[in-house]
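Please produce the structure of this protein holding magnesium ion.
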Amino acid sequence: MNVVILAAGMGKRMQSSLPKVLHPVAGKPLVMHVIDTALSLLASSDNSAAARLCVIYGHGGDLVTERIQQTYPDAKVQFALQQPQLGTGHAVMQALPYLDDSVPTLVLYGDVPLTSRTSLQALQAASSADALAILTMNLPDPSGLGRIVRENGQITRIVEHKDATPAELAIQEINTGIMLAPTKHLKRWLSALKNDNAQGEYYLTDIVGMAVADGIPVVAAQPRAAWEILGVNSKLQLAELERIYQRNRANALLEQGVSLLDPARIDIRGNLRCGRDVSIDVNCVFEGEVELGDGVTIGANCVIKNSRIAAGTSVHPFCHFENAEVGSKAIVGPYARLRPGAVLAEQVHIGNFVEVKNVTMGVGSKANHLAYLGDGSVGARVNIGAGTIFCNYDGVNKFRTVIEDDAFIGSDSQLVAPVTVGAGATVGAGTTLTRNAPAGKLTISRAQQITIENWQRPVKKPK
Ligand code: UD1
Ligand code: MG
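Below is the modeled complex.
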């Protein structure tokens, strides 16, 4: 199959300098939702070797092609510039050099992100080698859209809203814009398009009348849901589609047995994989690839990106994770920040206002209050007191802190890296550690405490 994605429209109503098709739904540009669906459709069809995908771009030019090439370096995505934009038929014409005559051509819109593969497969199933297949839908309010004109039940043509007679405006079956056409015929029809209509555009939809005149069967299929064919022309429509998308994701999680305290208050921007009996409180955002093991609970207002959390772990409210790994039965938060390279073993406890970056922590270790642990490794059963800082950075270079098993770091200590605290060592509260602390001993750098006898508090001078 050839796939042509129309993405040259200008999107004036977005009121933005970013090209319309690069605006995100669920963190992913609109056009990439369409490309992903097309790629998954191509991968599932028998003749995927003949698959070609062509994006028609115009407004926003290079940015659109750059972003797509970055995201799909391996996929064979072709680009055709449409300049100026003279209508949907003119747009598809730009793809003609890339289309393989021996397979049909599917036309998709780059600003209609939520069409499902299932609905496109229904379109495929409705068509045959030589038929023109159109995805249509009955809408209570069809205004603005192209109407499907039928005679004796057979589709005869599509009429655009602006060209329609009052009788045609009453038709509720609309053209979604998505169609599957026999490529050889499509090429011929496109070359015969005229722009003698209300908008002075080359309408792709005029090929329907041409097919009928040629005796080529025109068939229709319907999408499963109305939101699948919604396009984005404004920030309002973008926001509406985002909510529909998120609600669908939430429903899928609920069906799979995940507890969501409010399915209207979760955002998934990527893939979220959950084990059994996972519970997620309100206002959480999941980005990239996130995995939650069996029985994991996530408190309210957490942002979790590209992280894995193993079975039985509790994440309390207001945590922020990025590229982190948390072992089973751990307790994290509230207000904890796990940055890239934070790797926590089983039963680790990370408490409030603790930041962990590029540090592995062994089984059962704890840092429960106010700490910065950056660049190092912490063994098992280590206790890190409140206010501890790994001084990892001298302004130019970064160094590692190593804390071996069973060590105890007293509160408000600074470990000036590179430095090692041996197994079972104790570092006294308030220590600034600049040399290694030997295993099994108490190391302390605090000045001796003194008490000054007969000291007098200053008193206010009389005026
Ligand atoms: C089109 C259909 C209409 C259908 C509606 C569904 C035609 C003539 N009409 O109308 O029957 O009901 O979609 O939403 O096809 N585009 C280009 N280059 C252009 C013009 C458009 O790439 O020169 C792209 C747009 O970026 C957009 C898509 O094609 O992704 C549809 O364009 P739009 O202007 O929204 O089409 P409509 O006139 O609304
Ligand atoms: Mg238009």
